[in-house]
Specification:
The chain contains 16 helices and 19 strands. The strands form 4 sheets. Strands 6, 7, 8, 9, 10, 13, 14, 15 and 17 form a 9-stranded mixed beta sheet that branches. It has a 5-stranded mixed beta sheet with strand order 2-3-1-4-5, sandwiched between helices. Strands 11-12-16 form a 3-stranded mixed beta sheet, with helices on one face. The protein is elongated and about 80 Å long.
Length: about 475
């Protein structure tokens, strides 16, 4: 399903691209011939972020392209803008006149690749025609692998639930396993009860397509990493039915699963020295005569009882069984990713990925890597005084504490109860969706946090 996004091979007729900061405009223009200087000044080129000025050659074909890089603050406010500007150039092959350098150079190159993405499963989409020669100074092969993995995540999220149910999500995981020689097992339908995954079965039992737990393993040595992704392929809210306006984007409620599959692809394509495990509880939260009900109490895989106070808080239920399984074979680092709470969106908006962890080393490493790769994250607390909010008295745990306060934190605390034995645990409460077009991130599904985690793994700072 995923697209291949790549750079162009080198060619002698590539049009040179000059990246110019505002402070460097005069120096660059001084090196140009008089006609080109006059042209650039006539058009007011000032090096503003993503500003483009094509300098005409004698044959009418551009002799060079000037692209403004703006200020550092401009680039922070609008990441990937330079790469997107390159992708938007007219049909031709282009080559950067100077090597790219460091994190900013990688962002420009990756921004170009990600700007090539189009979701065209249901309708042809016009694609950028600019071809950028693989830039010098950055690891282009790695960036292409990252872009391909991000495209997989976007494709999975963008696909509507009619074509992306639990069965299709399983098929995507199987394709990924086959591509990289990973092992995969799937527990489906009534077999979930026999295998002691009662909460996954409970949430998915009312749907026409059977719930399942996907378990993918890759790598035999190195550090152990377990990724757990929420795979709710559509969420009606169950008997606590969502209003129509809230149901419209629920095809993206498997965004956690899509993101961990994209991250897994990065890891396997890079060949990192890891023992990787990916667990995805894949379900639909539907309405039928056998839907689970508010007030019901169920026993999770680890023996804890859970009172259901809202059937629309189903994601933490399916993750609970998957995390309990992960806890039985503790990895060095366990990460869950889920489109879990509206509270996280209210707190941080659509662009920031909140994460929770008690491990200071991992938190520091992740924050640094997120800044380096322009994949913003923000740490929220496992706030111990709120533990009592998830304890209803009639059962061990409450899946939806009343009151509406600290919703993201109480959900994270709920999940942490299922991994008491893992040495390092982090939970990401992502949105998985770009609500409007932005540079290199068209409106629709988007990965969040995966590149930051991947960079921390490459740096050896996690786990």
């Amino acid at each position: 399903m995923s697209q291949t996004l790549h750079f162009a091979p080198a060619t002698d007729d590539a049009i040179p691209l000059h990246l110019i900061a505002p402070a460097g405009v005069d120096a660059v223009l001084a090196k140009l011939g008089a006609p080109q200087q006059a042209w650039a000044r006539h058009h007011g080129f000032a090096g503003a972020l993503a500003e483009v000025c094509a300098l005409p050659g004698e044959d009418g074909r551009p002799s060079a392209i000037l692209i403004g890089t703006g200020t550092a603050q401009d680039r922070l406010r609008k990441r990937f803008a330079i790469g997107a500007a390159i992708a938007a150039l007219p049909d031709a092959t282009y080559a950067l006149a100077a090597p790219l350098d460091g994190a900013e150079g990688e962002e420009i190159a990756l921004g170009y690749l990600l700007s090539l993405y189009r979701f065209d499963r249901y309708r042809p989409q016009s694609r950028p025609k600019a071809r950028l020669v693989a830039p010098r100074g950055v690891d282009c092969a790695r960036l292409e692998r990252i872009a391909a993995a991000e495209a997989l995540t976007r494709d999975l999220i963008n696909t509507p639930a009619e074509d992306m149910g639990p069965d299709a999500l399983e098929a995507a995981a199987r394709d990924l396993a086959a591509q990289f020689g990973a092992e995969i097992t799937v527990t489906e339908g009534e077999a979930l009860l026999a295998s002691n995954f009662p909460l996954i079965h409970t949430v998915g039992r009312a749907a026409a397509r059977a719930p399942r737990l996907i378990d993918l393993r890759w790598g035999k040595g190195g550090r152990k990493l377990t990724l757990v992704g929420k795979g709710v392929c559509f969420d009606t809210g169950g008997l606590n039915l969502k209003p129509g306006a809230s149901m419209g984007l629920m095809k993206k409620d498997m965004g956690g699963a899509a993101t961990v599959l994209g991250l897994a692809q990065m890891i396997m394509a890079e060949g990192l020295d890891l023992s990787l495990r990916v667990l995805i509880p894949a379900v639909e939260n539907a309405v039928a005569g056998n839907s689970f009900r508010p007030g019901d109490i169920f026993t999770a895989r680890n023996g804890k009882t859970v009172e259901i106070n809202n059937t629309d808080a189903e994601g933490r239920l399916v993750l609970a069984d998957a995390l309990a399984l992960a806890n039985e074979d503790p990895a060095d680092l366990t990460i869950s990713m889920a489109t879990l709470t509206g509270a996280a969106r209210v707190a941080l908006g659509a662009d920031l990925a909140p994460f929770f962890t008690d491990d200071e080393g991992f938190a520091s490493a992740l924050t640094q890597s997120a800044t380096r790769v322009a994949d913003p994250v923000w740490r929220l607390p496992f706030h111990a005084p709120y533990e009592g909010m998830i304890e209803p008295g009639i059962a061990d745990l409450d899946n939806a504490p009343s009151g509406g306060m600290a919703g993201a934190i109480t959900a994270a605390l709920f999940l942490r109860r299922f991994v008491p034995d893992v040495p390092k645990y982090a939970h990401f409460d992502i949105y998985g969706w770009s609500p409007s077009n932005a540079p290199a991130r068209p409106k629709g599904g988007v990965g969040m946090g995966a590149r930051a985690i991947f960079q921390a793994l490459i740096d050896g700072t996690a786990p």
